[in-house]
Amino acid sequence: MALSSRWKILNKELGKWRAALGKAMDNYRSGENRTNEMIQAQMWFGATGGGKKSFNHHECWEVVKYCKLFIIIPTGPEVVLNETPLRDSMTSDSLLDSPMSQDSPIEKETRPIGRKARRRRK
């Protein structure tokens, strides 16, 4: 009950945190510690709120971070180690840019006739 009444506020805060964490992940440099990433995300989160507050809902983030709405998709350059990509390149590319979508157009399936249209036909 307590979380459901605060969901509007939490949703907004978690969305800002997701954006800040995504920026920090994209700005990750080799040799840096993941703690630096969290600190950088806290700084970006504070900057979006006018620098007044930091993100304090880490327990809530741990619950929702794998939900469809809050998943962070890496958009940085593909990282390669020994010629083996560490990230899936399809996650950073748009599905519209893939060669498969340009070669074969997807045919629309015809929809079944609706109840109202069926009545009008009779």
Describe the structure concisely for a colleague.
By secondary structure, this protein is mainly alpha-helical. The chain is 51% helix and 3% strand.
Any descriptors?
single chain; 122 residues; mainly alpha; two-stranded antiparallel ribbon; 2 strands; Long-chain fatty alcohol dehydrogenase family protein
Instruction: Give the termini separation.
Output: 51 Å
Task: Average the pLDDT over all residues and give the rounded result.
Answer: 72
What is the H/E order?
A: HHHHEEHHH
- Give the strand order of the largest sheet, numbering strands 1, 2, ... along the chain: 1-2
Low-confidence stretches: 91-96, 98-104
What does this molecule look like?
It is a single chain. By secondary structure, this protein is mainly alpha-helical. The protein has a domain at 2-73. The protein is built from seven helices and two strands; from the N terminus they run H-H-H-H-E-E-H-H-H. The chain has helices at residues 2-5, 7-26, 34-48, 58-64, 89-92, 99-103, 115-121, and strands at residues 80-81, 84-85. Strands 1-2 form a two-stranded antiparallel sheet. Helix 2 (7-26) crosses helix 3 (34-48). It is elongated and about 70 Å long. The model is unreliable at 91-96 and 98-104 (pLDDT under 50).
Write the layout of secondary structure elements.
Layout: H1 2-5, H2 7-26, H3 34-48, H4 58-64, E1 80-81, E2 84-85, H5 89-92, H6 99-103, H7 115-121
Antiparallel strand pairs: 1-2
Helix pairs in contact: 2-3
Organism: Prunus dulcis
Biased composition (Polar residues): 90-104
Biased composition (Basic residues): 113-122
